[in-house]
Amino acid sequence: MTDLSQSGLPGALPDKRQVAASFSRAAASYDSVAELQRAVGTALIEQLPQDLQPQRWLDLGSGTGYFSRALAARFAEAPGIAVDIAQGMLEHARQHGGAHDYVAGDAERLPLREASVGLVFSSLAVQWCGNFAAVLEEARRVLQPGGVLAFSSLCVGTLHELRESWQAVDGLVHVNRFRRLEDYQRLCGASQMQVLSLEARPHVLHYPDVRSLTHELKALGAHNLNPGRPAGLTGRARMQGLLQAYEQFRDAQGLPATYQVVYGVLRKPLPGGE
């Protein structure tokens, strides 16, 4: 069982087998609705150190391979490894290229040897990991000295409009839980890596109605997977209550959905701490 006191989570995370199955089912539809993922991953690539020239890179939680292809374009001379827990995503990504190798694996137990890559890039994947300290330790293990871990994730405050609207309806768990920014700060600070940057930025998307948002979450494979979620179909009365409660957030652009995105860039020290 995951030690949540170590991971800093305010409750249980979804079972990884459910996460893998959900994202595998979403492989074909993912890229068509992945506006947030593309924007966040692009912002993360822009935060990479300008002088970084890895001999080999790792796209961790590679999904459909969108950013494997972006990394391959940026580091044209370096082969890449795509690792994802969802076999369906890997199979989809392999068809479109980008990485040299495609490996099914868990971020908390990477199937790579020590000091084998110069960059670990992970965009919007590690929020599904119960033990983020283990993710950091594994990244440090597989990085070469001077190598860089760049990650983006989600923290508390994500989809607060949807969470608050559901709370007004039935008080059950309908929205995925995420760590606090302070937990990311604490765990990165204790990682034995140099923290080059670590910050949270809000990213707001707008939708014409609630169903557009919930349908997109399902197409992404990122719908509610938490323990304690309500079983079965959502009744018409509860859905109507949700629609009414969410309307209080409407602005000129539509219904907002706020994602609190954490961006972190860490470097593995050189021998002697240089």
Could you characterize what this model shows?
It is a single chain. This protein has one domain (8-158, 176-206, 259-273): Vaccinia Virus protein VP39 (Rossmann fold, 3-Layer(aba) Sandwich). Helices cover 37% and strands 22% of the residues. The protein has helices at residues 4-7, 16-25, 27-30, 35-46, 66-74, 87-96, 132-142, 160-169, 181-189, 210-220, 236-246; strands at 57-60, 80-84, 101-104, 117-123, 143-154, 194-207, 255-267. The protein has a seven-stranded mixed beta sheet with strand order 3-2-1-4-5-7-6, sandwiched between helices. Helix 2 packs parallel to helix 6 and helix 8 (160-169) crosses helix 11.
In a nutshell, what does this entry contain?
The chain is α/β, with parallel strands linked by helices.
Keyword list:
disordered N terminus; 274 residues; 7 strands; alpha/beta; Rossmann fold; seven-stranded mixed sheet
Helicity range of the residues?
Answer: 25-40%
CATH H-tier superfamily: Vaccinia Virus protein VP39
For the sheet with most strands, the description reads:
7 strands, mixed
In DSSP terms, counting alpha (H) and pi (I) runs of 4 or more, how many helices?
11
Mind telling me the CATH class?
Alpha Beta
Query: What is the molecular shape?
Result: elongated
Would you tell me the structural class of the helices and strands? alpha/beta
Number of strands: 7
The CATH topology name reads Rossmann fold
Gyration radius, in Å: 19 Å
Summarize the helices and strands and which ones pair or pack:
Elements: H1 4-7, H2 16-25, H3 27-30, H4 35-46, E1 57-60, H5 66-74, E2 80-84, H6 87-96, E3 101-104, E4 117-123, H7 132-142, E5 143-154, H8 160-169, H9 181-189, E6 194-207, H10 210-220, H11 236-246, E7 255-267
Parallel strand pairs: 1-2, 1-4, 2-3, 4-5
Antiparallel strand pairs: 5-7, 6-7
